[in-house]
From TrEMBL:
<dbReference type="GO" id="GO:0016747">
    <property type="term" value="F:acyltransferase activity, transferring groups other than amino-acyl groups"/>
</dbReference>
<dbReference type="InterPro" id="IPR000182">
    <property type="entry name" value="GNAT_dom"/>
</dbReference>
<dbReference type="Pfam" id="PF00583">
    <property type="entry name" value="Acetyltransf_1"/>
</dbReference>
<dbReference type="InterPro" id="IPR050276">
    <property type="entry name" value="MshD_Acetyltransferase"/>
</dbReference>
<dbReference type="InterPro" id="IPR016181">
    <property type="entry name" value="Acyl_CoA_acyltransferase"/>
</dbReference>
<feature type="domain" description="N-acetyltransferase">
    <location>
        <begin position="3"/>
        <end position="149"/>
    </location>
</feature>
<protein>
    <recommendedName>
        <fullName>N-acetyltransferase domain-containing protein</fullName>
    </recommendedName>
</protein>
Length: 170
């Protein structure tokens, strides 16, 4: 069954919370989504729907790169989740691909992610590209960046500042 990918609607909120809770086996990411939405930090939130059921979710929120010469706007991909019963069927990949395309169409230039090093490089996220960007969470190989516009990160070096919900949720 093909999943339909579309922007979240108001009536999806409970289902989105449940998808994140189930995929991460805990409340942290589900509550983070609510806090990002409540704080007005969400740039893009897409859901994957299969016969009327929300089975996947991806969120892009605004972050800032603080450099020596000023600040640069960027996006963070986090969190994303697919219900355990629907994983490894390509739904997560479609959420990433369609999400990135929608961000590109809105004129965004780069995205950072702290996530599975075996998953995100297939969409051209690169830990090498993120070497000159400092993450407040560390991350090593899991800290990756992607240019939505080729070369957009050239010459940019600094620390990535996340919105308050990322820094304050327990
Ligand atoms: C990561 C996740 C969103 C991928 O969604 P998906 O629909 O299964 O992804 P796809 O079917 O498009 O791609 C499969 C790839 O996802 C990754 N993946 C799938 N299930 C995974 C799991 N339980 N844990 C970690 N990675 C997983 C693997 O890299 C897999 O590649 P492979 O099949 O070649 O081994 C989904 O597994 C999930 O919700 N995991 C739990 C929450 C999570 O870790 N979110 C991401 C935080 S960075």
């Amino acid at each position: 069954m093909t999943a339909a990918i579309r922007p979240e609607a108001e009536q999806d909120r409970e289902a989105i919370w449940n998808v994140n809770q189930a995929a991460f086996e805990g409340d942290y990411e589900a509550n983070l989504v609510d806090a990002l939405r409540g704080g007005g930090f969400v740039e893009m939130s897409l859901v994957a729907e299969v016969v009327g059921e929300i089975v996947g979710h991806i969120l892009f929120s605004r972050v800032t790169i603080v450099t020596n010469v000023g600040t640069v706007d960027a996006l963070s991909l986090a969190p994303m989740a697919v219900l355990p019963s629907h994983q490894r069927q390509g739904i997560g990949s479609r959420l990433v691909e369609e999400g990135l395309e929608a961000c590109r169409e809105r004129g965004h230039r780069f995205v950072v992610v702290l996530g599975h090093p075996e998953f995100y490089p297939r969409f051209e996220f690169s830990s090498k590209l993120a070497e000159r960007l400092q993450s407040p969470f560390g991350g090593g190989e899991a800290w990756m960046a992607l240019e939505l516009v080729p070369g957009a990160l050239e010459g940019i070096e600094g620390r990535v500042e996340y919105s308050p919900p990322f820094m304050s949720l327990e």
